[in-house]
Specification:
The protein has about 60 residues and is mostly helical. Helices cover about 25% and strands about 0% of the residues.
Amino acid sequence: MVPAEAQFSDRPGGYIVRRYQRCGETTMDESFFPILWSKDGHRTPWLETYCRSGRREAPMEAAAE
């Protein structure tokens, strides 16, 4: 686990995790690094479905769009 505000850095190394880094970005994509809990209450939306079904799917309201 890493803090919700974690970002990629430009330091060398990290070849295992860095493969998930988008070119030119420092943010960690929630598809690969879901936020389980944050101080402001944010949680990656697809986690609820995943906990119930074991499948990573878009939440119902996003799927309806």
